[in-house]
Amino acid sequence: MTLIFFLFAFLFSTTISHVSARDFCVADLKGRETSVGYPCKSPNNVTVDDFVFSNFKVGTLNQFNFSFTPAFVDHFPALNGVGLSFGRVEVKKGGAVPMHTHADATEVIISTGGKYTAGFITSDNRVYTKTLTEGNIFVIPKGLLHFGVNVGKGKASGIVVFTSEKPSVQILDIALFGNNLDSGIVGKTTFLDVAQIKKLKALFKGSG
């Protein structure tokens, strides 16, 4: 029994040493993605450009009047295995980031300009909101519904940091109205008027 324990301890320590000895695991984006990320690119094929993301610029406005530029592992191979990713957000005057959730990532908002009211709803339906200005940092716990609204006189901007290299996202409006679920069922489960649901389905390219 002692010998078996020693053997497992040796194998475990060897594995840890091997992982620790590896300086990085730049993603081989041509490889198959798994639940633990992409396979590592051979160090012989890694260049300094793998460690630089050069497109962190203002994106195109969407129907909610905000833009989002992601710097996820699919765009930035050096993030593979790091447990972090980034986004650049700009919200036009009067615009909003709709209610959504990241099931696998905490989000940190770093406000860089404007006035932006951010908030989240806990599992017991408590609401936490704060109007952010330049220099404020706001933490949104993993998996909770959250939102943001530009409440200033000009654009609002920020950088967001996620505790995942490739965070998932589910936007509530699109989940409700961007599908082919029968409008009558949506109405019964939300108490919304069916005519309004059909209008929203047309807006979000849903059907039913």
Automatic annotation (TrEMBL):
**According to its UniProt record, what is one Pfam family this protein matches?**
Cupin_1
The answer, when asked if Disulfide bond is one of the entry's keywords, is yes
Q: What is the lineage of its organism?
A: Eukaryota, Viridiplantae, Streptophyta, Embryophyta, Tracheophyta
Q: Where in the cell is it found?
A: Secreted, Extracellular space, Apoplast
Q: Read off the CDD domains from this record.
A: cupin_OxOx
Which UniProt keywords are listed? Answer: Apoplast, Disulfide bond, Glycoprotein, Manganese, Metal-binding, Receptor, Secreted, Signal
Write down the species. Answer: Lupinus albus (White lupine)
**Record's protein name:** Germin-like protein
GO MF term (any one): manganese ion binding
**Signal sequence, start to end:** 1-21
GO CC terms: apoplast
**Its family?**
Belongs to the germin family.
